[in-house]
Amino acid sequence: MSEHRYWFRASPNWGWGLPLAWEGWLVSAVFFALIGVATWLCPPGTWAASVAILVALLSGVCWLTGEPPRRWWWTGDRGPR
After folding, report:
1. pLDDT for 8-66, tens place per residue?
2. How many CB atoms within 10 Å of residue 11?
3. How far is CA 66 from CA 12, 19, 41, in A?
4. CA distance 48 to 80
5. Cβ(38)–Cβ(47) under 8 Å?
6. Under DSSP, is residue 16 helix (H, G, I), strand (E, B) or coil?
C-alpha cells in the first residue's frame, strides 16, 4: 500500500508554504531559476507576463501535489479535506 506524500505544506491562511519533500524543493529551485532567466532574457514589457505564467504554473503544481488548503480566507471556514 503506497502512502501519499505531499510536496508542499499548506499555509495557515491560504496557499502553500515551504516544501516538504525533495520534489518540492526541486520545483522551487527550478521556479526561481526560471524567474532569473526571465529577468535576464525578457524585455521589460513581457517580463511581468512571463512571471505571471510561471507563478500560475507553480500554483498548479502546488495545487496538485501540496496539502489541501486549511481554510478559505474569504469565509474563515475550513476548506475541503
Report:
1. 998 877 788 889 999 999 999 999 999 999 999 989 889 999 999 999 999 999 999 99
2. 17
3. 13, 9, 30
4. 32
5. yes
6. strand
Tens digits of residue pLDDT in 13-26: 778 888 999 999 99
Cell of 1: 500500500
60: three-class secondary structure by DSSP: helix
Q: Is the dihedral of CA 56, 19, 12, 35 positive or negative?
A: negative
Taking each helix axis as running N to C, give the angle between helix 22-41 and helix 44-65, from 0 to 180 degrees, rounded to the nearest 10: 170
Q: How many CA atoms lie less than 13 Å away from 9 in the CB half-sphere?
A: 9
- Joined grid coordinates for residue 33: 531559476
Contact call for residues 68 and 81 (beta carbons, < 8 A)? yes
